[in-house]
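User: tokens in, sequence out, please.
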């Protein structure tokens, strides 16, 4: 017998299961049954596609047995089984690096935390919520040796050789006295119907059956009544997605979701679609009501299972649907793919490409209907997944217009987000220009950006985009139908010849101040220039989009690559009508002008969401200016 220590993360999760998560204990049955179903799925695929498993018998069955005297609950399957290395990898170590996120996401709210179980591949450990000791007897298909794994959840586990009649896995849980409810057959059956009714394999359980007393014709008892143990199937064991929509109740859809999403929360919406014709396939997609905890991780767990004619193929292929739809949970089932399809073939398969493209269009279409007919639910969806969906504007050019139509944006003139379609109603139909501003700063700061003052003065609405992803995506979006996207800094408004002449004359009057400001700021600005776009602010920054360094930085950003090359120095624009600028123009105090130059530059940077390089210097200069003014 060999003793082993649990991996650190596994040990932490065991402690949480044993000592912290008591809110929703029943889900341990859901998780163990789900694991058993996965083991059967894997064996089924191997028997059909791998010559090494051709001789292995596949008789799918999951058995649950409760022993009230011994206080044990046993869940047994005839699936792929495990060898010693599998036991080490699967039950002693948590291989998925994203599991660390499970620990990071713990909130202290037992109900919320228990809903995380299963989402990060920690489902097996949930059995320690109800058991003080667990034994696993398992034998891998095609191998002779069986193994016994056992642990008390105390940081150690043991593995030794044993015997088992056939391949598969048996989990024996020695229940805590407080958890005797899970020995009751009625309680177990209700849990199975709630979470695992549509597991595609039969789940059996020993149940007591009442046999009434036998009596003769005169009513005399010949044989007393008794209870017999009968092994009966307790789930429907049908693939829900193969049933006609008209025959499925909402509760059944929700129950199936709980089993595939490892969640006790109801889905926000589901989409069940069957396509017939040149390619036949069925999809059942769910949108969760809450974003999965790993949705912004590179190693996120995909939520789509691929079946080929009801044979499970994979649930770990991120190419089944585009990454910007990684919030989806559900299944794709097709008859037109080969059973032995590999990941490489899957990524380049023409049939799979058609299924994927059609599925994307279907999901976008359903979201459009929700946005129009169920605004409350769409608001919930967009709050959770709007930024994820927005990634499609970058990655899915073919569907860019449809995705844009699903966007909700903050705008200059609205206090709440508005649908893109509603924003378009106020766009000038002659110019057909959609103005936008981006910046990695707060919404209120961006709405008060000096760059928007000329739009406010003209009562023109602007898309205000303050998410980091916006700064990457929107420079790439140049048009929508006949409309052009124009950054606020590139907007041009018509001026009369007289206005242009007056501005040129005014700019000449400030040439001396422009030179003094540039001399004070040195290389921290590319240049200083007069602008007539400002109304209330004294200064703003402008990027030189013709600068090769700027163009290179933008190109790298659009390619999704960061660059260590410093951003080119900005242009500082000054407002010749502002009282502060006018006073500086008429001042002969060179120290004041120098301090003011740096403070004004820092002020402009703060509006752009840029962190100051020298905060102490900014405060010192500001204090000197205030001292002179007091």
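Assistant: Sequence out:
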């Amino acid at each position: 017998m060999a003793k082993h220590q649990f991996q650190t993360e596994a040990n932490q999760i065991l402690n949480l299961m044993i000592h912290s998560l008591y809110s929703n204990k029943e889900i341990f049955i859901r998780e163990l049954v789900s694991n058993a179903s996965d083991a059967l799925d894997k064996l089924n695929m191997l028997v059909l596609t791998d010559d090494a498993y051709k001789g292995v018998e596949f008789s799918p069955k999951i058995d649950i047995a409760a022993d009230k005297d011994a206080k044990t609950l046993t869940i047994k399957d005839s699936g792929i089984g495990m060898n010693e290395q599998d036991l080490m990898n699967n039950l002693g170590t948590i291989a998925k690096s994203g599991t660390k996120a499970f620990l990071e996401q713990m909130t202290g709210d037992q109900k919320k935390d228990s809903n995380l179980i299963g989402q990060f591949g920690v489902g097996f450990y949930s059995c320690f919520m109800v058991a003080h000791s667990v034994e696993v007897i398992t034998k891998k298909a095609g191998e002779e040796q069986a193994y016994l794994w056992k642990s008390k959840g105390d940081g150690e586990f043991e593995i030794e050789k044993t015997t088992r009649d056939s391949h598969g896995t048996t989990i024996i849980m020695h229940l805590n006295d407080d958890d005797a409810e899970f020995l009751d057959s009625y309680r177990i059956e209700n849990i199975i119907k709630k979470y695992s009714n549509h597991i595609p394999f039969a789940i059996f359980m020993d149940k007591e059956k009442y046999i009434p007393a036998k009596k003769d014709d005169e009513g005399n008892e010949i044989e007393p009544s008794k209870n017999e143990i009968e092994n009966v199937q307790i789930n429907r064991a049908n693939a829900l997605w193969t049933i006609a929509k008209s025959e499925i109740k909402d509760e059944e859809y929700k129950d199936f979701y709980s089993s595939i999403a490892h969640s006790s929360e109801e889905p926000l919406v589901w989409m069940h679609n069957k396509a017939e014709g040149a390619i036949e396939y069925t999809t059942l997609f769910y949108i969760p009501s809450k974003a999965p905890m790993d949705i912004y991780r590179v190693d996120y767990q995909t939520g789509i299972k691929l079946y080929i004619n009801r044979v499970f193929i994979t649930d770990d292929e991120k190419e089944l649907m585009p990454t910007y739809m990684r919030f989806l949970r559900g299944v794709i089932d097709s008859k037109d793919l080969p059973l032995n399809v590999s990941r490489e073939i899957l990524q380049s398969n023409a049939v799979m490409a058609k299924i994927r493209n059609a599925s994307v269009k279907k999901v976008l279409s359903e979201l459009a209907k929700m946005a129009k007919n169920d605004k409350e639910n769409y608001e919930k969806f967009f709050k959770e997944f709007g930024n994820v969906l927005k990634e499609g504007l970058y990655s899915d050019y073919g569907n860019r217009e449809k995705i844009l139509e699903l966007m909700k944006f903050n705008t200059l003139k609205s206090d709440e987000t508005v649908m893109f379609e509603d924003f378009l109603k106020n766009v000038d139909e002659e110019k057909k220009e959609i103005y936008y501003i981006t910046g990695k700063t707060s919404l209120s700061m961006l709405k008060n950006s000096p760059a928007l003052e000329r739009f406010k003065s003209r009562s023109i609405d602007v898309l205000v985009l303050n998410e980091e992803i916006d700064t990457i995506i929107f420079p790439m979006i140049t048009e929508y139908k006949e409309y052009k996207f124009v950054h606020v800094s590139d907007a041009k408004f018509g001026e009369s010849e007289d206005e242009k002449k007056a501005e040129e004359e005014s700019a000449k009057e400030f040439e001396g101040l422009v030179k003094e400001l540039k001399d004070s700021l040195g290389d921290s600005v590319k240049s200083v220039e007069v602008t007539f776009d400002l109304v209330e602010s004294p200064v703003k920054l402008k990027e030189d989009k013709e600068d090769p360094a700027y163009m290179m930085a933008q190109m790298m950003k659009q390619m999704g690559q960061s660059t260590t090359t410093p951003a080119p120095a900005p242009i500082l624009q000054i407002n010749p009508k502002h009282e502060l600028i006018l006073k500086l123009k008429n001042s002969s105090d060179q120290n004041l002008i120098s301090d003011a130059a740096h403070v004004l530059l820092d002020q402009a940077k703060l509006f752009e969401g840029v962190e100051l390089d020298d905060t102490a210097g900014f405060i010192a200069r500001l204090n000197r200016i205030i001292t002179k003014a007091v």
